[in-house]
Amino acid sequence: MDRAVIEGDPYRLIEGMAIAAYGIGASKAYVYLRAEYPLAIQRLKDAIEVAKTYGFVGNNILDSGFNLEIVIKKGAVAFVCGEETALIKSIEGKRGMPKPRPPYPAVSGLFDKPTIINNVESLANIPNIIREGAGWFNGVGTENSKGTKVFALSGNIANTGLVEVAMGTTLKEIIFEIGGGIPDGYKYKAVQIGGPSGGCIPESEIDIQIDYESLITVGAMMGSGGLVVMDENTCMVDVAKYFMGFIQSESCGKCIPCREGTRRMLEILERIASGKSNETELETLERFQSVLHMTDLATIIQDASLCGLGKSAPNPVLSTLRWFRHEYEEHIYERKCRAKVCKELLTFTIIEDKCTGCTLCAIQCPTDAILGSKKHPHYINFEKCIGCGTCLEVCNFDSINVE
Amino acid sequence: MNNNAINEVIEKYPSAKREYLIPMLQDVQEIQGFVSKDSVVMIGDHLKLPGAKIYGVATFYNQFRFNKPGQFHIQICRGTACHVKGSVNVLESIERALNIKVGQTSRDGLFSLEVVACLGACGLAPVISVNGEFYANVDNKKLFKILKNLRKEGGTK
């Protein structure tokens, strides 16, 4: 969303920054932007130059005697740099590791000077609010969450892209009316909101009105404003594992609960989704036991981490555990993945009646696990099969069965 | 590696302040495709920083590479939307097809593979990018076609 503002209307951000800087008496402003968005960087650069020639940025803005320099800082790709103190470190040319607060950045921030940090979306809203008045802005939204919010819709949904809705719009409206629902006739399973630190909202809570408070009641948060819709082909254990893997690799390593805790948590999740053959009784017991520890571990990570990344690190697990416990149980006890995602829990077989012996799957199989001669039904060797699903994808006769 | 190019980068930042370290590394990578040992030494001389500190910063951030990328640098998006749409399978297929792991360059110098957190094209998931060119809705079939074409292109050069 922030990228869309910078690419589409960078002057809104510049104006908002100038007003905010004037408000607090700052003479230098930084825009910290992801390096992966070269177009946004270029557009903002150009816009700042144009604003300078008109005297909206630079020395003695509009003869007010107020000076403001805007500097663009390209981030070097680190998730933790979304945390304000880590972001400051990154601008200073150091490793992006958060520091304890207080002192808060407003007292001692960038280069030990008082600093405030705001989101692009917030700053870009300022010009309109100043122009139209607070009443205009407050006219939309709910009692405690005012105005509108832009969401990035993606995943298993018909219409992907950015949507701006009034605070308090229901999730159902966003997904099924604006988003056009789930394509290919599949059923809705969950929506993941707020990025890796957010949570999942199941079908039973789909009538929820989206605002800051109500999202927290269902264990999610507004976060980045990303809405990833998941249909029944998505495995929630796999989603939790995916987020944990991401957070574990993005943890800066400063606090032990976050650095070690997320790693242990990922290991537990991997064990839940990992293979079934040759497991000894002791290993099975350990698998069960580790699951019991998971919620305890989550609380410790939340309580003992310094920054927002650590404090919210267990969210994906807690939220999927809260709403999709049955899927975890299926994985743990029945060793089944209903969404057919966790490969090690799947068995691939060839339906003899349907197989024409075209050999396509045997040629494509990366581990040569498929045996058979031309024009005769083929056979999958379980011991060699790694469950990659290539055969399923290349088969033209629907003859691969997955369980 | 061309040390003149590195010198040019360094000259762009005459006031040797620590805050220019990351921009300098970014500029070097843009020119060379990766952060070479020479460039770290030269930047260290300029900023009066030991190489260990510079590597400490550079390895912290995912952006910096320390191996020369291949002729075709493949970036695969592992964002949430791409994950939901099956980017794991694409990643595994690339690794198998090219016989390299993430962060490596193939022996013939043709391909290198990098995982990125998000390419910012979630509506087109799953996405891969080859030398900055995006390919949308990639599945195995599409992937093999892309790789085949790239191999052809690379062979003729």
What is the string of helix and strand elements of chain B? Answer: HHHHEHHEEEH
Helix percentage of chain A: 40-55%
Largest sheet of chain B: 4 strands, mixed
Q: What's the CATH class of the largest domain in chain A, please?
A: Alpha Beta
CATH superfamily membership of the largest domain in chain A, which one?
NADH-ubiquinone oxidoreductase 51kDa subunit
Per DSSP E runs of 2 or more residues, the count of β-strands of chain B stands at 4
Q: What does the radius of gyration of chain A come to? A: 26 Å
Query: How many domain modules of chain A?
Result: 4
Q: Approximately what portion of the residues of chain B adopt beta-strand conformation? A: 5-15%
Write down the CATH topology of the largest domain in chain B. Glutaredoxin
Q: Fraction of residues of chain B in helices?
A: 40-55%
Structural shape of chain A: elongated
Specify the number of helices of chain B.
7
Name some characteristics of this structure.
heterodimer; A: 403 residues; alpha+beta; Rossmann fold; Ubiquitin-like (UB roll); de novo design (two linked rop proteins); 5-stranded mixed sheet; two-stranded parallel sheet; B: 157 residues; Glutaredoxin; 2 domains; 4-stranded mixed sheet; 7 helices; 4 strands; elongated
